[in-house]
Amino acid sequence: MTSRKAPVIGIIGAYGAVGRHAARSLAAEGRYRLRIGGRHTDAARVFAASLPGRAEAMWVDANNTDSLVRFSEGCRTVLNCSGPAYLLVDRARRAAFEAGADYVDVMDDGSASEPVPERTAVLSAGLSPGLSGLLPELPAHGLASGGAFTGCYAGVGPLTRAGAVDAPGRSGRPPRPR
């Protein structure tokens, strides 16, 4: 596959604690063009340049819907590695779908949304180390008509700061600061 035809995977929070591992894993595959996104464009550029293969840097703010839609345009799949999810809710997911992209989130708030025809969402993929680098490949290549994927994994491992803040908030209420 030529790099021009390779699917684009946009990674929000790509140079952060979780995103950098997913980006490195996907870049090592050599089958994707990566869009490295975050609020610090210089950090995104430096990180994109350090990856093998084709990677571009682009500013995106997970709190800004317009920037999320712009970031998602042209992506086959958007992987959201930003957080905490209880503050971001489903904003990135809605923006990815609006732009015509599939969506993978390492956390997500888990709120129900209307199904979007021809779109796939994988939520809470990063709750266990490794899944956030593994699952973006599934929607990037598409599921067969009527296909489905269901998975479950439980484990204990180190959490990022955003993950630690989110874990107690899974009840739908933000955790109380101490």
What this model shows, in words?
There is one protein chain. With 178 residues, the chain is an alpha/beta fold. It is 31% helix and 15% strand. The protein contains 8 helices and 6 strands, in the order βαβαβαβααββααα. A 6-stranded parallel beta sheet has the order 3-2-1-4-5-6, sandwiched between helices. Helix 3 crosses helix 5. The radius of gyration is 15 Å and the shape is globular. The C terminus is likely disordered.
**Would you count the extended β strands for me?**
6
Q: What is the helix fraction of residues, given as a range? A: 25-40%
Order of strands in the sheet with the most strands? Answer: 3-2-1-4-5-6
Q: Alpha-carbon distance between the termini?
A: 51 Å
Over the alpha carbons, how many angstroms does the gyration radius reach?
Answer: 15 Å
On the 0 to 100 scale, the average pLDDT is: 78
Helix and strand pattern: EHEHEHEHHEEHHH
Gross geometry: globular
Summarize the structure.
By secondary structure, the chain is α/β, with parallel strands linked by helices. It is about 30% helix and about 15% strand. Strands 3-2-1-4-5-6 form a 6-stranded parallel beta sheet, sandwiched between helices.
SSE arrangement:
Blueprint: E1 8-12, H1 19-29, E2 33-38, H2 41-50, E3 55-59, H3 65-72, E4 77-80, H4 85-88, H5 91-98, E5 102-105, E6 121-122, H6 131-134, H7 137-141, H8 161-166
Parallel strand pairs: 1-2, 1-4, 2-3, 4-5, 5-6
